[in-house]
Design goal:
Elements: E1 29-39, E2 44-55, E3 60-64, H1 71-79, E4 86-91, E5 94-95, E6 104-106, H2 118-128, H3 133-146, H4 162-174, E7 180-184, H5 192-209, E8 212-216, H6 220-226, E9 229-233, E10 240-245, H7 254-258, H8 261-274
Parallel strand pairs: 3-8, 3-9, 6-7, 7-8
Antiparallel strand pairs: 1-2, 1-4, 4-5, 9-10
The chain binds adenosine-5'-triphosphate and magnesium ion (MG).
Adenosine-5'-triphosphate (ATP) binds near residues 38 and 40.
Length: about 280
């Protein structure tokens, strides 16, 4: 099921039933006073400390911060791939106790199986979840059309451009209609123009699916173009320095957005917080 979004109103999506019948005010993701410490043979690293963040259902939150400040660690906590040393992580109000198979995860590299076509890479998600075959096929077709991959369903990964491969990875992550989509620098390896195009598409897909998104990026402009709110983190031990409300409508034309005062204000502010040397554009 896809939920069309209102393009300007930023109210919680009360019609979104992906919270398992919970109140629409229950955050899709809750991070409560979390700290993560890694103990290895040679050193103890405090990766995160005092992290508090609530993400509304249907909200798009971008996370920026210097390398090593714990951004990937934060996504792994939400996915249940890591346990916090202290504090709690909640998904739809429920404590995350182990790996969560209901979420979607997109990594920096598409990680596709070279011997499978685009379509069969997308359907891998359905096979792993033992989804009814017909449902998986229908959903894959919808996503292929939505991401502009029509005509390339049978292509092998090496026959696709980097941007197309990332689109396949995005389709695979969205196949089971995850309530939360986690993206860890998904466009970092793409050239600037393809990245722009993917940003525009991701904005549209987010509006069309109503999925809650947590995106880690090193690009301040990507964060401000895509997100409702941008979480700025400090250097290790990573903690939240500030959360910036970008204040733009959900539907965003790329060029128009770049010229808007709200966009310029947000990017300038974030650049100031991070220090020019540690951030991309
Ligand atoms: N499994 C682990 N064992 C030990 N230390 C770890 C582990 N995972 C991460 N760390 C440490 O935790 C800190 C945060 O790592 P993390 O990968 O979350 O950073 P990041 O913000 O995603 O960085 P980047 O922008 O470079 O991807 C780093 O100092 C890293 O060395
Ligand atoms: Mg990382």
């Amino acid at each position: 099921m896809t939920m069309p979004r209102n393009t300007t109103v930023r109210e919680p999506d009360v019609t979104n039933d992906r919270q398992g019948g919970r109140s629409a005010t229950t955050p899709a993701v809750g991070i409560k006073d979390v700290a993560v410490r890694f103990r290895t043979k040679n050193r103890d690293v405090t990766a995160l400390t005092d992290v508090d963040l609530d993400v509304r259902a249907g909200e798009f939150v971008a996370i920026v911060g210097p390398s090593g400040c714990g951004k990937s660690t934060l996504l792994k906590l939400v996915a249940g791939l890591l346990k916090p040393s202290t504090g709690d992580v909640l998904l739809g109000g429920e404590r995350v106790q182990g790996p969560r198979h209901d979420i979607g995860y997109v990594f920096q590299r598409a990680a596709l199986l070279e011997w499978r076509s685009a379509r069969r890479n997308i359907l891998l998600q359905a096979e792993m979840r033992k989804m009814p075959a017909e449902l998986g096929r229908r959903r894959a077709d919808e996503l292929i059309a939505m991401t502009g991959l029509s005509g390339f369903e049978d292509a092998l990964p090496h026959e696709l451009s980097g941007g197309m491969q990332q689109r396949v990875a995005l389709c695979r992550a969205l196949l089971h209609e995850p309530p939360v989509l986690l993206m860890d620098e998904p466009f970092g390896a793409l050239d600037a123009l393809t990245r722009e195009q993917m940003n525009t598409e991701l904005n549209r897909i987010w509006r069309e699916t109503g999925t809650t998104v947590l995106l880690v990026t090193h690009s301040i402009s990507e964060a401000c173009y895509l997100a409702d709110r941008v979480v700025v983190m400090s250097a290790r031990p990573g903690t939240i320095t500030e959360i910036i409300d970008v204040g733009l409508p959900a539907e965003r034309d790329y060029t128009d957005t770049m010229g808007r005062p709200e966009f310029r204000e947000a990017t300038t502010h974030i650049r100031g917080l991070l220090g020019a040397a540690s951030a991309q554009d």
